[in-house]
Structure formats: structure tokens, C-alpha cells
Amino acid sequence: MTELHPRSGVAVSTVGLVHIYRAEGHDVAALSGVDLVVRPGEVVGLLGPSGAGKSTLLSLFAGLIRPSAGRIRVGDHDLGAMSPAELDRYRATDVGFLLQGAMRNLIPYLTPRENIAFAQRAALRAERPDVPAPAALVDELGLGDVAEATLRSLTPAQQQLTALGVALAARPGLLLADEPTSQLDHEARALVIGTLQRVSAEHGTTIIIVTHDPHVAEALPRTVTIRDGRVSGEGRRGEELSIVAVDGSLPLPQAIVAALPPGTLVRVQPTEHGWLLERDDIQTDQATGEPR
């Protein structure tokens, strides 16, 4: 199996990705055909309401769950085709996962340096030459003064940076972060997001962040909105864009959906400056399809 290059970011892609789980005797589609491409070294935010499928998508990227249908690739890996042993090695050395809440990522009785050293065991067994010394990674994250401190003596920002150090311990090509600023104040939030951006810039790490925080979303160069288990839009440089899906469907921005009741007929036609969405005067009844 081809190894991911440990010091550069990897491409991430999904085609028709579906994940169905069982709840109270019923099948629930958490993802319903996600098509997504993340380029090597990109920093991308996943936005959308609770229950839209964002955290499910992160878990699929991490190899924690398998897709029900569709394809998912990280670098040279087809995650759906990997054996349990291959997925274990992938999670230990090729992908870093930052869970929501710093202490969920850490062993509470170990220091920041010891936590990072513990997370490096699998990469060291694989004789990866690029694995940084724990003290060097602690210094890189600005934690040198508290490297041997107890975790509970650290500030919330220092705890989260320690958790980030654990996720980066093996210099993964892909870093996944689930709400990394949810319990931080404004100053700490800016420090963590700035550190993530610096990690991507210096090491080329591909980073995918789930967030509900509009301040975090504004700081990211690209955002992808997930609604009802599908990609419904993107943000680039502050501009919201809709995406034409493989099947030709076009999810509309929520403001437009709110202004157009079900059954509304619209025309989409080219103009000199782009495309025009025009409401038709003849509307149909959604149930019967007859004019009303």
C-alpha cells in the first residue's frame, strides 16, 4: 500500500458518498451523495446546521466508519477498500483528528510533551524519519514554557494547542478538526485558528475544520456548506456560491428558498453578465401539478 507523504498535504475527494445508519428501527441517511474535492494543502471549513452530516463526513475521512455507498479517497488511499488493519495504521500515522473539547484528545495525567510522545508511538515503530521530537513540536506550538506542566494548570487555549500537538504528532498529511474553537474566547480562538493556518502554510498540511462559529468561517479561505446530507454551497473570499451537482440539481441559497414557496416555477437563462433566475407568473400546485 502506498504511503502518504508525511510532510505535505494530500488531496481528499468523495464521489456519490452515502452513509446510512440505523436509528430506532429506521434507516437514516446522514449523507446522501456528497461530491467534494479538497486540494493538497487547502484549509477548508465545513459549515451547516446540526445534523446536516458534517461530523459524519469527518469520521469517514478519518476511517472511523465506512461509507454505505460511493467512494472516498485520501491521497492514494481508497478508504472504502482498506482492511481494518490498514485503517488502524492510517489513523495512527497518516491522519490527525482533533475532537471537540481539548481534554477528549489528551491523557489527563501526562504533560503536554508526554501526550505528544505517546501519540507518536505508531509513527516511530514505522521508522518515520520526519517525526519531530516532542520538545520541538511543543516549541513550534508556543508551549515551551508549559511543556512539563500539568494539563489542568494550562489555559483553555494551551490545552487546545496541546490537543493540536497530539493530532500533529506524526506529521500527518491530513488534519481533521471538529469545532476546535467551541470552548474558547475571542483571543484564544484567534490563536488556535492562526496556528492551524500556520501549520498548513509551513508544512503543507491539508486541514478540514467543522465549525458553527461565523468568526472562524470568515477567517478560512474556503468553506463548504452541508445541508440535508449534501453539499449545498461554497464560500470563497466571503462570497457565497451554489454548486451544480453531478445530477444537474442546483441547491439555492436559503434566502431565495424562503422567498420561493414549493411549486414555484423559475426560468434560468443566460444574460450578457451571467445567468438570470426569473420567477414565472404561472405557478403550479405542488400536490397536483396543475396551474393555480
3D structure, described in words:
This protein folds into 2 domains: 12-233, P-loop containing nucleotide triphosphate hydrolases (Rossmann fold); 260-292, no CATH class. The chain contains 9 helices and 13 strands. The protein has helices at 54-61, 84-93, 112-119, 121-125, 134-140, 156-167, 186-203, 214-219, 254-259; strands at residues 12-23, 26-38, 43-47, 69-74, 77-78, 95-98, 174-178, 206-210, 222-227, 230-236, 239-241, 266-271, 274-279. It is globular and about 70 Å long. The chain starts with 11 loop residues before the first strand and ends in a 13-residue tail after the last strand. Keywords: ATP-binding, Nucleotide-binding. Residues 15-253 form the ABC transporter domain.
Label this structure with key terms:
292 residues; alpha/beta; Rossmann fold; 2 domains; seven-stranded mixed beta sheet; four-stranded antiparallel beta sheet; 9 helices; 13 strands; 27% strand; globular; disordered N terminus
Gist of the model:
Residues 15-253 form the ABC transporter domain. The chain is α/β, with parallel strands linked by helices and 292 residues long.
